[in-house]
Amino acid sequence: MKLEQLQVDARPRPHAQAIDLGMALLREHARTVYLCWWALWLPLGLIVALLSPHGFLSWNWVILWWLRPLIERSTIFILSRGVFGETISVRQALRAWPRLLRKGWIRTLTWWRPIVTGRGLYQPVWVLEGADGAQATQRRRVLGARGAYGSAAWFGIICAHFEFVLQLALLSLLGLFFSSVDEMNPFLLLQDEFAPGRWENHLPLVGYLISAGLIGPYYAASCFTLYLNRRAELEGWDIEIALRRLLRRRQSLLDRGAAKSMLGLLVAGFCLVLPAPDSQAADCSKLPVPGDTAASRASAVSAQQRQLRASIDSLSRGQEFSHWECVTKWEAKTKVPEKIDTDEESWLSKLFRTRAPDLPVAEILKPLVITLAIALIVWLLWRNRRLLGGLLPAARDPERQIASEIAGLDIRPESLPGDIPTSVLQLWQRGQRREALALLYRASVSRLAHADSLEIAPGFTEGDCLQSARQAERQGLLSQPAGVLFAEITRAWQAAAYADRWPQDEQLRNLCLRWPPALGGQS
């Protein structure tokens, strides 16, 4: 691999930028990639459509979806050559495609297919590196580290949603065309029952064939550049390229210095053997005049005028007036500012200003768009009201589901003893420090969830419980002493459980003394 021929900047990038680089790389090689993709994708779709049984026609697109990773390898092959400046034709890519299927296809088409959405990051391990077995496993583990596989997986999910939207849009468009004039139904073809022999049975396959044929190369290209980015991080491609450039520059300077020295010696020796120049070579009076610049004159009207003109001509041809020089220099061009048409309107404003005589589209769309925008903003604010720091009240659901355990600790009231502080101190004095802190923490969470009706949902962590308590304290639903005490208990429990840093005896005794009035007395 010749890194000096790399056509992209090899610096390590964030994963989002690496994915975006794949889209730019695909645009550079779009013709070859899409022609090769469709040369394999379209015949495969026809074969699946012809060989599918009648009872399976509405689901035969699943077979095409299952075999799609094999088609993605052609895109990886083309871009892997193009990124190093090598031009691959469609015929060359099609001829090389069978060789690309030798390794990794069993894993890709079996247990990996339904769950590994980030497979595009690992495909180059088989296609380009030729790794197999334990070596391939180790390479996949290294390449997928530091969030690279997560980025590839989420990008695969996003691409799947785009494909679904395109597929649904195609079926809805056809449904509008086949609906009756009185009842426009875009979901007509989705609601119709599939009967054997009808052409509508192949619509899901056609929809997926088109949507995956458009989105699939983007997924493969972006995962390939994410793979390149991980290799650049691991192998230091940018450092290696910079060192090679410095080496070439140093070698060029050395060669240039030696060439200058040799040239100087040759010029000095050549000057010693040159003959002396003739004296005529220094005579500049015989240089040709660029041209006669005298203006054309009318004929003289008298002998005095002719004599005056002869005197002027003899003076102008003298040596005092024969000096001339030619100067060549660069001058900047005068840029003419482009005229901006301020009267030009955007297509959206033109659309809203258009008033059809029978269908007032603008009057209908304007309030509809404004209403939808306001509704969307209100919904987003209400949906993320927790992030607003209590500016909006939290919704209270009378039938809310309360968690039965937090971080593996049972917080049900029936699982707690009657006297919490005494039980905690007894466990602490017996040397059961972890059990003592766990009892104090889960009792505090239980009282907040059941007595104070704080939102403690299943799956909450210690941090989520603390954030819920702070929000309730800001809204006045929880007293300040209770909120401060719960924060101290949470920090003590986290430090002991995760960092093995235990509180002092006096600190624990202080927490137990403050617990009944702040939390225990509210039960």
Global mean pLDDT: 77
Summed up, the helix count is 19
Largest sheet: 2 strands, antiparallel
Structural class: mainly alpha
Task: Note the overall shape.
Answer: extended
**What's the total number of strands?**
2
Write down the secondary-structure element order.
Answer: HHHHHHHHHHHHHHEEHHHHH
Strand order of the largest sheet: 1-2
Radius of gyration: 41 Å
* Total number of domains: 3
The first-to-last residue Cα distance is: 71 Å
Proportion of β residues? under 5%
The parts where pLDDT drops under 50 for at least 5 residues are: 278-287, 355-359
InterPro entries: TgpA-like_C (IPR025403)
Keywords: Membrane, Transmembrane, Transmembrane helix
Protein name: DUF4129 domain-containing protein
Pfam families: DUF4129
What would your notes on this structure say?
By secondary structure, this protein is mainly α. It folds into three domains: 3-242, no CATH class; 357-392; 405-522, no CATH class. The protein is 59% helix and 1% strand. It has helices at residues 15-28, 30-51, 61-82, 90-96, 105-109, 123-127, 133-143, 148-178, 188-191, 203-235, 237-273, 303-316, 347-353, 361-383, 420-429, 433-450, 462-474, 480-499, 505-518, and strands at 405-406, 409-410. Strands 1-2 form a two-stranded antiparallel sheet. The chain is extended, with a radius of gyration of 41 Å. The two termini are 71 Å apart.
